[in-house]
Design goal:
With 195 residues, the chain is α/β, with parallel strands linked by helices. It has one domain: Rossmann fold (3-Layer(aba) Sandwich). It has helices at 17-29, 49-55, 64-69, 71-82, 99-108, 150-159, 177-189, and strands spanning 2-8, 33-39, 85-91, 115-118, 121-124, 130-136, 164-170. The radius of gyration is 17 Å and the shape is globular.
């Protein structure tokens, strides 16, 4: 059975378009997948000096405090490694990703675990996974010059080896919410859900 990791980043719990879209995408997979849900809005720690020090200390030399500093990162990476499919809720805040999603990216992008450096440059270690990103925006059109979110998410997923990335977008909701939701619904209906 395939394993799906659902990540929600919206600060809103009720009335969130990105959460509604991730609900609908996950429902398309039905009982064909095992699901792990991570609500990033409940709090993902920012990386700090203690985290950096622990991360750059060889694993077999880390103190108990350093292991504790990396515990959440290790847990998030384990969830990511276990997943075959990622469904990410991406509300666009101020033309970019929410801080909670950026914090998750910072926690999971770790040299030696999710990517490694080679003579040819960095190489992602999480190949063979699929990501479906549910975008919600009031006025930002994905792919436009004002969109600093979708390109960043695609790049960071690719950086850790996830290159099969699809976007479902309910964009420009403030202009015509009904039309935006109809477009997103059609995109969800067209997804290949073979797990």
């Amino acid at each position: 059975m395939a394993h799906l990791l659902r990540l929600d980043a919206s600060a809103r719990r009720s009335g969130s378009v990105s959460r509604d879209l991730t609900d609908r995408i996950v429902a398309r997979f039905g009982a064909d997948v095992a699901i792990t849900t991570r609500d990033l809005a409940t709090g993902v720690p920012q990386i700090d000096e203690a985290w950096l020090g622990a991360n750059f200390t060889p694993a077999d030399e880390r103190s108990p405090d350093q292991r504790a500093a990396l515990a959440i990162s290790d847990e998030l990476i384990a969830e990511l490694k276990a997943a075959d499919i990622l469904v990410i809720g991406l509300p666009i805040y101020n033309f970019a990703v929410p801080a909670a999603l950026k914090a998750w990216i910072d926690q999971v992008a770790r040299a030696g675990l999710t990517f490694r450096y080679t003579e040819e440059g960095p190489r992602g270690l999480l190949e063979g996974k699929r990501a479906i990103v549910a975008v919600a925006s009031g006025g930002t059109e994905p792919g436009s010059s004002a969109d600093f979110a979708t390109g960043y998410v695609r790049h960071m997923l690719g950086f850790i080896g996830i290159t099969e990335v699809e976007f479902v977008a309910a964009d420009r909701l403030m202009m015509d919410a009904d039309q935006a939701m109809a477009r997103a619904g059609a995109q969800i209906g067209a997804l290949d859900i073979a797990a």
